[in-house]
């Protein structure tokens, strides 16, 4: 893959973060993690929502598009699909280029088309041009054909700016496989396990306090046979709209949505919940692929402090005997084990075993012995993830 950055240099990050990963994971596992974090997950899981009669149709579509796929051996409503690649990408230097935002580039790197909101620059590009797509750090992520002129890419608010012709990887997507009419969504195995381990029951009051875009929220509804009373909170109106669209699509009536910050709402509410799901904002260092990691120890620390404030607020809303599942899509100790330490030492919560455990890695620090699940790229075919279960 030719560009000003060669593949061996990615993910781009500071030396401070390279040392952090080495200290956290050890040199061998850190090296495995950095090698795999720049690739898509080996296993992409598709959650069939309630209606298992569509499974054969979904498998047929995947196979028609030459994706390997099968039903998960433990969960009959999960389909496991494999990405295609790695393909050689060698765009000619003479091609015009479209520069896209770094996170958008990571989607394009695995087969997504170039959507207008992600475009940062497209000098002199005309509709029909063969172009190269690079991120803001000049990493080549795809060859594409422009579908509009550069001016329209920068002033329009939506639409496809360029059609992806070749990228290093191609993963199955709802848009490109026309899955929209079907009752399904892509959900990683660890994210699926998060809701399963909370084990919502039909007669319970459940809080999902950082809910949007809502895949876990509607999974909680599914697991309770749509009978639990679920309150979904998120501070982003735009992200909450995505959950509300899912609620409307599936005609779900047991989820109430609230736009707001749980740390503030907890001071106003008097109601108590049987169970709470906390999947807080995090540094997302487990998401795949990651080509650029603009993170630092100070960002990790400040994020951890906010996560602890969410846990403190949630604990105030939890009934005695109630349960919390805490999860993140990052691998740092500060956002994971140190948050759990805080829960055990300051909030009078206790750790619980999880019913569904699929990771052979528990903790990064041998001094801690409590049961959690960690998923680390390089050791697992998933994103990086952390799950812990607590009880009041």
What does this structure look like?
With 392 residues, the protein is an alpha+beta fold. The chain has 11 helices and 20 strands. The chain has helices at 15-25, 27-36, 55-64, 102-108, 150-155, 189-198, 215-223, 237-249, 262-265, 297-316, 337-346; strands spanning 44-48, 69-71, 78-81, 84-85, 96-100, 114-115, 119-121, 130-135, 140-146, 160-166, 169-170, 184-186, 205-208, 229-234, 255-259, 273-278, 318-328, 350-352, 373-375, 385-391. The strands form 4 sheets. Strands 13, 14, 15, 16, 17, 18, 19 and 20 form an 8-stranded mixed sheet that branches. The protein has a 6-stranded mixed sheet with strand order 6-10-9-8-5-7. Strand 16, helix 10 and strand 17 (318-328) form a beta-alpha-beta unit. Helix 10 runs parallel beside helix 11 (337-346). The protein is globular, with a radius of gyration of 21 Å. The mean pLDDT is 94.
